[in-house]
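Exercise 7b. Backbone tokens:
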């Protein structure tokens, strides 16, 4: 089975992540044209509830699997690796069966009382089987990540995205004649088929890995097989429960956030239709733009957990500091130009993508904190990998509590409205990132040089000013042409500045070149 280094694995996930993020915008733009805003509303209504359930099942178990498999691989203990996979699958499937049955049995009550629109019933029923599929797929992804093999995760995510795009639009279109609620349910069936295809691709890789890998001598775990299984189960639960708790805080916060925003806007005297439109613009248009560059930070965080876990098992502090510094520097350097462009070009960006330039004020408000989002993921992954998920949980809980209080206070003010909610979300992002940073610094005595931030800030300023000048100078009638020229110039000058200021040196470029060459050779396999 192919095994990649930290940066190599990150680049594989990054390539797949960028592709999937870009492809993911296709249904976001086209689905409303098929089933309309009302259909999209029915399609979206169950998602916060589903996210909370999936967090119970997949929030911490994949992280625990990746960490424990990485430790077993460091010990060359294949028997323990397979036992961890079997125990994790058993645990995850058991939880999946329970919550799927619970959703199906309680679907009528949930759709009438919690989701406020009984027409979402069919969509909710079609959504329930996704729980079991994701439960299995997430464990298998954690297994491969622990083995430092990111190709199955990348391939399965790409297959899942491609199938989902086609099936969502296809099922929604063919179900539309039966009614808008059937069309929304059809879109959810398309999501389920996409998830199923991704899971099947992962299982194919598992089967191929078993067939191709030679049998190693089974290492003894504990005094007998039963104690070995119990020991592994205890370790899985010890790692996964705090991680799940941390993510559950975020998922529950998202659910409460949606409720509080709508209620606060109502208190501010904003009509229900306008409030729904504003919230839809925030969650369905602005947030996806902000999260587009996070494909890198997701790739970094996924690769970072097994890498730091393996180094921690060897008590190799030098490698831990090196990997963490690489991750944070990459997040900073790659996220910075996107942050600048989202701020400077907010209006044309919203016009070109959604034909709604009036929502650009939301993007301009959130763009400066995007860099904190990209920084946050590697920091949280480091805390999880170093057996400090409890710190991440407390930090997330503090940030979420502050956010919910501020949403109720600010968004209910008539003069602020949805912009008050955005301010609360921004404060939450910055606060959690600083709390994670403080936890990592105290744990590892880790630090980054202030000159690194100053250099990146200088490159951002040069890039931003040039992009603004080109976009707002009437040298061409076509705004699209000016927008493209502004983006290209801004990115080009940013790259020139990071080279000139030696943020990225020749050795880094040679390393990237070698990884690209190896990635190109390994991808066909």
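Sequence design result:
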């Amino acid at each position: 089975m192919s095994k990649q280094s930290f940066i190599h694995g990150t680049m594989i996930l990054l390539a797949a992540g960028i592709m999937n993020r870009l492809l993911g915008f296709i249904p976001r733009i086209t689905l409303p044209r098929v089933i309309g805003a009302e259909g999209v509303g029915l399609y979206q209504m169950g998602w916060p509830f589903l996210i909370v359930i999936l967090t119970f099942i997949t929030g911490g178990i994949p992280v625990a699997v990746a960490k424990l498999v990485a430790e077993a691989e460091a010990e060359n203990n294949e028997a323990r690796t397979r036992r961890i996979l079997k125990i994790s699958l058993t645990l995850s499937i058991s939880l999946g069966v329970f919550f799927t049955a619970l959703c199906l049995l309680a679907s009528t009550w949930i759709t009438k009382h919690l989701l406020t629109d009984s027409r979402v019933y069919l969509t909710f029923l079609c959504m329930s089987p996704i729980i079991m599929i994701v439960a299995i797929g997430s464990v298998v992804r954690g297994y491969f990540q622990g083995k430092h093999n990111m190709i199955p995760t990348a391939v399965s995510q790409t297959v899942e995205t491609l199938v989902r795009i086609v099936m969502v639009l296809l099922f929604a279109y063919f179900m539309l004649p039966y009614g808008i609620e059937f069309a929304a349910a059809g879109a959810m069936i398309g999501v389920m088929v996409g998830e199923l295809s991704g899971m099947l691709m992962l299982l194919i890789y598992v089967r191929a890995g078993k067939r191709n890998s030679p049998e190693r001598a089974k290492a003894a775990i504990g005094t007998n097989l039963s104690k070995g299984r119990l020991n592994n189960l205890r370790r899985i639960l010890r790692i996964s429960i705090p991680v799940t708790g941390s993510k559950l805080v975020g998922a529950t916060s998202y659910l409460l956030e949606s409720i509080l925003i709508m209620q606060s806007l109502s208190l501010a005297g904003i009509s229900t239709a306008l409030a729904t439109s504003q919230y839809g613009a925030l969650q369905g248009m602005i947030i996806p733009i902000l999260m587009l560059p996070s494909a890198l930070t997701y790739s970094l965080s996924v690769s970072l957990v097994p890498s730091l876990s393996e180094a921690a098992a060897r008590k190799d502090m030098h490698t831990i500091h090196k990997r963490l510094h690489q991750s944070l520097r990459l997040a900073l350097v790659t996220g910075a130009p996107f942050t600048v462009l989202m701020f400077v070009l907010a209006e044309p960006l919203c016009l070109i993508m959604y034909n709604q330039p009036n929502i650009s004020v939301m993007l301009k408000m959130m763009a400066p904190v995007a860099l904190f989002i990209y920084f946050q993921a590697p920091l949280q992954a480091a805390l999880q990998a170093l057996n400090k998920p409890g710190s991440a949980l407390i930090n997330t809980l503090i940030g979420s509590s502050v956010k919910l209080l501020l949403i109720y206070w600010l968004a209910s003010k008539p003069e602020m409205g949805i912009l008050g909610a955005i301010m609360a979300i921004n404060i939450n992002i910055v606060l959690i990132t600083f709390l994670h940073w403080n936890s990592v610094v105290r744990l590892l005595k880790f630090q980054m040089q202030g000159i690194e931030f100053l250099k990146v800030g200088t490159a951002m300023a040069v890039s931003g000013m040039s992009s603004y000048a080109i976009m707002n100078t009437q040298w061409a009638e076509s705004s699209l042409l000016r927008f493209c020229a502004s983006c290209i110039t801004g990115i080009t000058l940013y790259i020139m500045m990071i080279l000139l200021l030696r943020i990225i040196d020749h050795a880094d470029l040679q390393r990237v070149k070698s990884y690209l060459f190896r990635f190109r050779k390994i991808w066909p396999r």
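Instructor comment: The first helix runs from residue 6 to 45. The radius of gyration is 23 Å.
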